[in-house]
User: Which sequence fits this backbone?
């Protein structure tokens, strides 16, 4: 479904809302649909992406093995070495210090095989730190980052969500649920709550199916690196 069809679906299901102050404008519904995209993304990881990191010795960022990720990366699911298919596991700084000492970031800790990555976010960039520091022999080797990307905003009528088409209707379910829940703050509490409950069930049932389809749930595993606090 494209944006125009989602908006039409919402309008039909809310056509019995007569009061002008409870009707949502097109712009408001578009904002809500884009908010729904973000909600669904965080709960399912439904928009996949890959990117490539090329290992560089001594030139990545001030002599440390720091690498920028693409700006649309929401979080990492796992990283794989392209030469042997081995996994580069996520660890935090405390674990690295306990295993390799306080100077674990030093370029003296070199190796041909990346073993770990550490969240090293900056103020304006998303970065990971590779350990051990790539040796001269490892320069030019590549890693593939498997992750989840932020959704593109829906703006034009023919814009479609980036995840599978059979799931698109879930965005309308979320907007209808939240819309009728908002109506319950007025004088038609019982009727609005009943309708909100219907759309909440529709949303949650489809969300559960999406999680199964994506083979993941909300909880981050050891090999996921969420950057939720960064926003879009």
Assistant:
């Amino acid at each position: 479904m494209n944006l125009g069809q989602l908006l039409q679906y919402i309008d039909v299901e809310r056509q019995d809302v007569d009061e002008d102050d409870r009707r949502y404008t097109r712009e408001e519904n578009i904002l809500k649909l884009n908010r729904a995209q973000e909600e669904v993304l965080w709960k399912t990881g439904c928009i996949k992406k890959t990117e490539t990191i090329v290992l560089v010795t001594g030139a990545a960022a001030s002599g440390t093995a720091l690498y920028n990720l693409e700006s649309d990366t929401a979080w990492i699911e796992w990283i794989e070495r392209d030469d042997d298919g081995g996994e580069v596991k996520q660890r935090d700084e405390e674990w690295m210090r306990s295993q390799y000492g306080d100077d674990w970031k030093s370029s003296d800790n070199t190796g041909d095989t990346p073993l770990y990555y550490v969240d090293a976010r900056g103020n304006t960039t998303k970065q990971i730190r590779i350990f051990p520091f790539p040796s001269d022999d490892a320069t030019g080797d590549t890693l593939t980052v498997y992750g989840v990307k932020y959704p593109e905003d829906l703006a034009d009528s023919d814009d479609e969500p980036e995840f599978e088409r059979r799931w698109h209707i879930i965005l309308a379910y979320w907007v209808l649920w939240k819309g009728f829940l908002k109506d319950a703050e007025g004088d038609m509490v019982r009727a609005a709550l009943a309708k909100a409950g219907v759309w909440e069930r529709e949303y949650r049932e489809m969300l559960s199916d999406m999680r199964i389809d994506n083979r993941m749930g909300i909880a981050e595993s050891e090999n996921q690196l969420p950057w939720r606090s960064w926003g879009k």
Observations:
- Residues 59-63, 216-232 have pLDDT under 50 and may be disordered.
- The chain has five helices and ten strands.
- The helical segments are 3-13, 26-44, 93-100, 169-183, 189-213.
- The first helix runs from residue 3 to 13.
